[in-house]
C-alpha cells in the first residue's frame, strides 16, 4: 500500500502530533520517506527559486520561481527538484485544515508583484510565530493560515482560475463518494446532502465544470489509479470497492477517462518503476 505520512513523520520528529508547520523550503529536510506517498495533511509549497517537476495525482507540473503548489489530503505526491530550490513550506493537519477551510481545487498558482509581497509577509509571520510559541502564537498562527489561503483564493479568482464556491457541499459529496460501505445513485447522494439533484448538478457544474455523475466518475478513476499502482488488489476487487458491480463497465469507463485499459495502465507505469 502507498505510505501515508503525518506532519511529524514527514519531518522525522518523534512528537506524536503536530497540527501545523511552517518553514523555508531550503531549511526543511524531506525526512526518511517513501516516494511517491500521500499526506494526512494539507501542504502549500512556494518555490521562489529553482526548477524541477512536481507530481500531484499522476499529473506533472513544472517547478519554477514564484509558483505555489497546493496539495490536499490523500493526494499522491512526488517531486524532483534542483539543488538551488528556495521558498516556503506550510503544512496543516487534516482536522485543523478542515476547520480553517484550506482545501484548494487547483494544483498550483503563479504569483507576482504585490501578491508576492503579501504572501511572503504572511508566511514569514507564520515562521516567526511558530518560533515564539507563546500564548498569543496559536491564535496568530490560525489567523495567518486562513489569511494565506484566502490570499491564494483571491489571486486565483483574479486570474480566473476555477475555485469551489460551494466548497462544503463538494467536500461532503466527495466524502460520501469514498464511503465504500454505500453505493448510491446521484439522486440518493443529493438526498443525503439535503439538496435536490438539480442543485447538486448545478454546484458540481459551477465548481468543477462537470455534472455530478462525471465528477463522481473522475474521483473514482483517480482513486482506481492509486489502488492499481499501490495496493495488492486485482482489477475486479478495485472495481467492486469503488462501487462498480460490473468490472467490464469499470474497464470501459477507465479507458474512456485515461485512454488506457486498467491492465495497460499497470504495464505502462510499473515499467517506469
Automatic annotation (TrEMBL):
Query: Cross-referenced InterPro entries, in alphabetical order?
Result: AraC-bd, Homeodomain-like_sf, HTH-like, HTH_AraC, HTH_AraC-typ_CS, Tscrpt_reg_AraC-type_HTH
List the keywords (alphabetical). Answer: DNA-binding, Transcription, Transcription regulation
Concerning SUPFAM superfamilies, the annotation shows:
Homeodomain-like (SSF46689), Regulatory protein AraC (SSF51215)
Q: Which residues form the HTH araC/xylS-type domain?
A: 167-268
Alphabetical list of Pfam families matching this protein? AraC_binding (PF02311), HTH_18 (PF12833)
Q: Which GO terms describe its molecular function?
A: DNA-binding transcription factor activity; sequence-specific DNA binding
Does the entry feature the keyword Protease, yes or no?
A: no
On whether Thylakoid is a keyword of this UniProt record, the answer is no
Q: What is this protein called?
A: AraC-like DNA-binding protein
What species is given as this protein's source?
Dysgonomonas alginatilytica
Amino acid at each position: 500500500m502507498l505510505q501515508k505520512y503525518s506532519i511529524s513523520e514527514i519531518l522525522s520528529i518523534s512528537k506524536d502530533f503536530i497540527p501545523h508547520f511552517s518553514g523555508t523550503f531550503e531549511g526543511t529536510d524531506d525526512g526518511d520517506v517513501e516516494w511517491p506517498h500521500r499526506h494526512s495533511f494539507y501542504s502549500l509549497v512556494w518555490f521562489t527559486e529553482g526548477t524541477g517537476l512536481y507530481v500531484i495525482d499522476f499529473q506533472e507540473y513544472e517547478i519554477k520561481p514564484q509558483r505555489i503548489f497546493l496539495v490536499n489530503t490523500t493526494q499522491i505526491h512526488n517531486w524532483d527538484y534542483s539543488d538551488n530550490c528556495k521558498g516556503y513550506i506550510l503544512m496543516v493537519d487534516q482536522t485543523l485544515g478542515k476547520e480553517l477551510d484550506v482545501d484548494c481545487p487547483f494544483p498550483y498558482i503563479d504569483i507576482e508583484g504585490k501578491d508576492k509581497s503579501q504572501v511572503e509577509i504572511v508566511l514569514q509571520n507564520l515562521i516567526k510565530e511558530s518560533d515564539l510559541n507563546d500564548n498569543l502564537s496559536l491564535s496568530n498562527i490560525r489567523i495567518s493560515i486562513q489569511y494565506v489561503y484566502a490570499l491564494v483564493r483571491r489571486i486565483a479568482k483574479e486570474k480566473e482560475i476555477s475555485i469551489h464556491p460551494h466548497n462544503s457541499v463538494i467536500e461532503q459529496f466527495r466524502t460520501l463518494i469514498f464511503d465504500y460501505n454505500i453505493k448510491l445513485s446521484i439522486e440518493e447522494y443529493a438526498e443525503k446532502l439535503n439538496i435536490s439533484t438539480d442543485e447538486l448538478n448545478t454546484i458540481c457544474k459551477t465548481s468543477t465544470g462537470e455534472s455530478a455523475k462525471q465528477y463522481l466518475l473522475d474521483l473514482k478513476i483517480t482513486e482506481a489509479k492509486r489502488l492499481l499502482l499501490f495496493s495488492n488488489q486485482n482489477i475486479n476487487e478495485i472495481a467492486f470497492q469503488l462501487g462498480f458491480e460490473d468490472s467490464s463497465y469499470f474497464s470501459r469507463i477507465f479507458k474512456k477517462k485515461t485512454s488506457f485499459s486498467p491492465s495497460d495502465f499497470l504495464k505502462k507505469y510499473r515499467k517506469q518503476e
